[in-house]
Sequence to fold (224 residues):
Amino acid sequence: MAIPLPRHRPASQARLPAARLRGGIVILDPYRDAYDGFYVPDIGTIDPAKRERAARDALDAAGWGAPFPQELLEPPAGEQPAWSDLGPIGTPQIRFRDVANFIGALVYASLAFHGRSFGRLLASSRRTSRSPGTLDDYRTAIARFERLCPFLPFPMLCLFRSLFLVVFLRMQGLAADWIFGVSLFPFSAHCWIAAGDRLLGEHREKIQDLVPILRIVAVSATPA
Fold:
């Protein structure tokens, strides 16, 4: 479960996304382009006061000042979103309009991505009023995106690919959520796109061990 964490450092009073995971806490700090992940001793559930104190001590030691959301001080519920794969996407015919949208989305995403910190990139994201499309609409759009990606002369990391896909879907008239997930021991972070609980251009086995720390609903992005 993702929990907004009040930040009490002089640099900012922003509410930062945080997640309570088994064994620890992760805080997403876009102002430093970084995640803070740290260990919280598992002392069982017999004495809630001691369990809460252990979490407070861990947050204090990492430099995060009280007060803390109660959800950060309690063990994680263990429930994860029931993600579903999009299913077979087929091989639809690529139209000239699809190529134009793909190139347009690439340019748009590159302008939004280039030279920006993680915090500015997130700040540029905004909700769109577009309604979700049908499952077939998403399957067709993803199939076209996947067929065109191999023509790119460079590999894409998840952050840029997710932004690129969000813009491409928006050009196809479809809304999508931008989700960031984390795990601890070992630490890993990843982001992906979904419509509700349906994964778009991602597979469930790749993200099933990640806890969502931030979800931007029905997102689009601005390049300026």
Remarks:
- The chain has six helices and ten strands.
- Residues 2-73 form one domain.
- Residues 40 and 58 are 6 Å apart (CA to CA).
